């Protein structure tokens, strides 16, 4: 109360200089703790606190002397609505926040990662092996292992494996393409349950660095072969796709386009050198399995060799598109103008299946 009497005396002394109405000063009750008093003395000037408020310029309630002794109110931290992120546990919320393009990108990246993982498994097997890795160990995609259960253990497959081993280990043969870890790249890159379309080729490119286990495809940095150049020309005419600077068709494979050669290995500079050794029987089994266990797959058969495989496909369940081979010798005899790429997407969309993004 001593402090209260001192303040009252001070206010009376200032009355001659500053007109203060009783209505603006509320009676003091108990003096706040010394720490609050020190804070008040340190941060505020008494003269400014007891000026008559300007009621005409502000509608806010006037502050009393005791308001300055109260502890500061806590500010509530708010988050702008534009920065709110849905709860990761709320699947419907997070899914709804993604556009169709974003969902497609997420799906593509997920399956690309799986394809890369399969490739690394095969590469590690070959790198860590002291000798030839059997063919049955190089097919690692689980969906194909289930769909083709026992196929690589059949007598013809075991004989084929021994043949490929003898070719790779033969010092008189410069090289066998593609590298061992890429022999089943088509199947390891395109899971059985994701196959939307099949583009059949013949045997792998037989030039150095060309073959990568995907029909018609070459790694980036390798000159684009004439057949693939013509494929890109047709794509441009059909869908308006710009011509890419590379020939890597991995993007198609990851989306569900099975880029399957009918023969999966070849000697360097010797086309068809591994034909009729067992590969045709294996790839026929792949085509039959798709025909029997799947529906609505689009088969793109270019050239006479590919057309012969139509007998393995149930045309009542699947779509078969046929045209001339895209090589420089035959592209003008029915490949150009076939519009197989747009027709494939139309057929897929009719079944409610996402179309292929053919642009590389």
Characterization of this structure:
It catalyses: Hydrolyzes single-stranded DNA or mismatched double-stranded DNA and polynucleotides, releasing free uracil. GO terms for molecular function: uracil DNA N-glycosylase activity. The chain has 360 residues and is an alpha/beta fold. The protein has a domain of 239 residues: Uracil-DNA glycosylase-like domain (Uracil-DNA Glycosylase, subunit E). Helices cover 38% and strands 7% of the residues. The longest helix is centred in the first third of the chain and has 29 residues.
Strand order of the largest sheet: 3-2-5-6
CATH homology group of the domain at 112-350 = Uracil-DNA glycosylase-like domain
H and E string: HHHHHHHEHEHHEEHEHEH
Straight-line distance between termini: 86 Å
Task: Give the amount of beta strand, in percent.
Answer: 5-15%
Report the C-alpha radius of gyration, rounded: 39 Å
Oligomeric grouping of the chains:
single chain
CATH topology of the domain at 112-350: Uracil-DNA Glycosylase, subunit E
Overall helicity = 25-40%
Q: Which term fits the overall shape? A: globular
Mean pLDDT equals 84
Helix-and-strand structural type: alpha/beta
Q: Which stretches of 5+ consecutive residues score pLDDT under 50? A: 18-59, 76-93
Total helical elements:
13
CATH hierarchy: architecture of the domain at 112-350: 3-Layer(aba) Sandwich
* Biggest pleated sheet: 4 strands, parallel
């Amino acid at each position: 109360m001593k402090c209260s009497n001192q303040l009252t005396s001070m206010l009376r002394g200032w009355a001659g200089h500053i007109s203060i109405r009783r209505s603006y000063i509320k009676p003091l009750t108990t003096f706040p703790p010394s720490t609050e008093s020190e804070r008040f003395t340190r941060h505020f000037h008494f003269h400014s606190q007891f000026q008559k408020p300007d009621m005409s310029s502000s509608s806010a309630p006037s502050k009393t002397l005791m308001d300055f002794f109260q502890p500061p109110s806590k500010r509530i931290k708010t988050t702008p609505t534009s920065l709110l992120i849905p709860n990761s546990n709320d699947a419907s919320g997070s899914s709804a926040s993604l556009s169709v393009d974003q969902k497609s990108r997420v799906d593509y990246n997920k399956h690309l990662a799986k394809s890369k993982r399969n490739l690394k498994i095969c590469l590690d097997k070959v790198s860590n092996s002291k000798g030839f890795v059997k063919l049955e160990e190089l097919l690692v995609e689980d969906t194909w292992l289930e769909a083709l259960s026992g196929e690589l253990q059949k007598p013809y497959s075991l004989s084929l494996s021994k043949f490929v081993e003898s070719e790779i280990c033969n010092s008189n043969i410069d090289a066998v393409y593609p590298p061992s870890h890429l022999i089943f790249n088509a199947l390891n890159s395109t899971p059985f349950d994701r196959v939307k379309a099949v583009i059949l080729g013949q045997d792998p490119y037989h030039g150095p660095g060309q073959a990568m286990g995907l029909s018609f495809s070459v790694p980036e940095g390798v000159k684009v072969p004439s057949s693939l150049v013509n494929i890109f020309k047709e794509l441009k005419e059909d869908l308006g796709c710009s011509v890419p600077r590379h020939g890597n068709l991995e993007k198609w494979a990851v989306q569900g386009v099975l880029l399957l050669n009918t023969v999966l290995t070849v000697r360097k500079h010797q086309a068809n050198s591994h034909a009729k050794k067992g590969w045709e029987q294996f790839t026929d089994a792949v085509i039959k399995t798709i025909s029997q266990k799947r529906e609505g797959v689009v088969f793109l058969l270019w050239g006479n060799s590919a057309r012969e495989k139509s007998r393995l496909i149930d045309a009542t369940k699947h779509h078969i598109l046929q045209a001339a081979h895209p090589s420089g010798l035959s592209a003008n005899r029915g490949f150009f103008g076939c519009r197989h790429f747009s027709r494939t997407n139309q057929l897929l969309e009719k079944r409610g299946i996402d179309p292929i993004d053919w642009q590389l």
